[in-house]
Write a structure and sequence with these properties.
By secondary structure, the chain is an alpha+beta fold. The protein has helices spanning 12-17, 24-41, 91-94, 103-110, 138-148, 188-194, 228-234, 252-279; strands at 80-86, 114-116, 122-125, 129-132, 157-162, 166-171, 177-180, 202-211, 219-223, 243-248. The protein has 8 helices and 10 strands.
Length: 280
């Protein structure tokens, strides 16, 4: 017995098959309705979201973001930094006696050099050679280098700044973007804005932040920007190498691909109905 029969009706498929030949247009209509139902059913399938990346169970334990103050992150292999060294405790940097023309600042802009920390945590620097910097914070590295450069500079002042800290933002069905962190004070909302904001193809209520991706201490936070609590989390700070994933909506490209097929089927149905009607 069909499920719909106790309610005095037949299922759509049986109803279509049971129609007499005089109702052929109605059969076509039923088939069209069933075709549309299949398309709608696919909206939750991989067919319409082939580029969806992160899927989590409903009972997944998401982490609540709590960072409100920037941290001093240790230098690590792969970090790139710029380094400036001045004598006399950086006197030229703060000397305002030269009106509107600071040669030290000009030197910073014209002679910028970058240094990379190798996989073993070391870095080769001018005059002092190879130094182990991985594991030190920027301030600790500055103190170490100031002490080492005392042999060559009078009261050296050292500035060290990591320049390749970044956050990756996946924006729905739009292009992803790697956002450089100008400082450690960047919030989740600022990172999303720097990447271009939430696109029309992204869900503002399904934003995940993946921290320490691929590591044993990986954590995932879910942010809903429509909710006050979600907005509060969006004001928390990101960390270097965080991944922000804005879940995409239905892939509109799929509908663009099947639109000609639907149009052709609809045209055939209309023509068939027209000629069937005038032939009776």
């Amino acid at each position: 017995m069909d499920v719909a029969e106790p309610f005095g009706m037949k299922s759509p498929i049986i109803a279509c098959k049971s129609l007499p030949k005089s109702h052929e247009p109605m059969k076509w209509y039923c088939h069209a309705v069933l075709f549309g139902a299949v398309i709608l059913a696919l909206s939750s399938c991989k067919t319409l979201n082939p580029n969806a990346m992160a899927r989590y169970d409903k009972d997944y334990a998401f982490t609540v973001l709590t960072d409100t103050m920037p941290q001093d992150y240790p230098l690590a292999p792969g970090d790139r930094f710029d380094l400036y060294i001045f004598s006399n405790n950086g006197y030229l940097l703060v000397d305002r006696s030269i009106s509107g023309n600071n040669p030290a600042q000009q030197n910073l802009q014209q002679n910028t050099l970058f240094y990379d920390i190798s996989q073993d945590g070391s870095c080769t620097l001018p005059m002092i050679g190879e130094q182990q910097l991985a594991g030190l914070t920027e301030k600790e590295a500055e103190a170490l280098l100031s002490d080492l450069y005392k042999e060559y500079f009078l009261e050296p002042y050292v500035q060290l700044r990591v320049i390749n800290r970044r956050v990756t933002v996946f924006r729905g069905n739009d292009l992803a973007k790697v956002v450089e962190m100008p400082s450690l004070n960047m919030t989740v909302m600022e990172a999303i804005a720097a990447a271009g904001g939430i696109p029309p193809t992204g869900k503002a209520y399904r934003i995940t932040l993946i921290r320490n991706a691929g590591r044993t201490d990986q954590s995932v936070s879910l942010i809903d920007l429509r909710d006050p609590e979600g907005l509060e989390q969006a004001g928390k700070l990101v960390r270097p190498n965080d991944v922000i994933y804005i879940e995409p909506t239905i892939n509109t490209a799929f509908f663009k691909e099947i639109a000609p097929i639907i149009s052709a089927v609809t045209s055939i149905f209309i023509l068939y109905t027209y000629f069937d009607t005038i032939s009776q």
